[in-house]
Amino acid sequence: MTQAVVLFGSPGSGKGTQASLLKKCLKVPHISTGDMLREHIRDGNALGVRVAATMHAGTLVRDEVVDCLVEERLAKPDAQAGFILDGYPRTREQAEHLLGWLDARNIRELVIHLIVDYNVIVTRLTGRRQCPRCGTLYNTVSNPPRVEGVCDLDGQALVIRDDDRELVIRQRLAEYESQSRPLIEFFREKGRRLFEIDASHQTPEALLFQVCRTIKNPAVEG
Ligand code: ADP
Hints:
Blueprint: E1 3-8, H1 15-26, E2 30-32, H2 33-43, H3 46-57, H4 63-74, E3 82-86, H5 92-104, E4 109-115, H6 118-126, E5 128-130, E6 137-139, H7 166-180, H8 182-189, E7 193-198, H9 204-216, H10 218-221
Parallel strand pairs: 1-3, 1-4, 2-3, 4-7
Antiparallel strand pairs: 5-6
């Protein structure tokens, strides 16, 4: 059985952190559309150049572009036993595309909605710092590095991701409210397996425990 998990939630809800813990536990790849797009920007290839301005403004990249990226990624051998989607789908069109893809392969997905208070989200996003070399994420409030401003793993000076600047954060949250949040209702209407977990105040490890329990025993948790 293919283990298909969709982590859903606002920017800053902790999807990325959960996905990277969860992939070790499920042994399936973590597929983040944000990471894939940033990789294209870093490579400086044609796709990267096309999406850079959109991402820096905090608006959404075109559906066809992300649908295509995700499909290509899901076709790779390491995703055949399962995958964790993080940051996809984000629009109605993307959700329809994904559900069509899953249904055509008889794969039953599990959508996990991480619910987080708006104020907690804003604090998390404005405090987010990242190592430009190894990608490790920190937070000045909830998960600071041992030495302020410096990566624990490789000593690099931490940076604020371009789309973590305040105006852009507001834009990303607005995009989430208008385009992505309505998908919760969409998944419900379509009778898909949807689990909602309060993720505002738990540590990532405690949350992981709950997420794993839900994945292993969805009938009981539901
Ligand atoms: P966050 O969830 O914190 O906003 P991501 O890394 O998931 O961060 O996304 C960063 C940016 O990448 C988004 O603001 C958007 O521009 C682009 N992006 C990522 N995933 C998608 C998607 N599924 N559809 C459209 N744009 C996307």
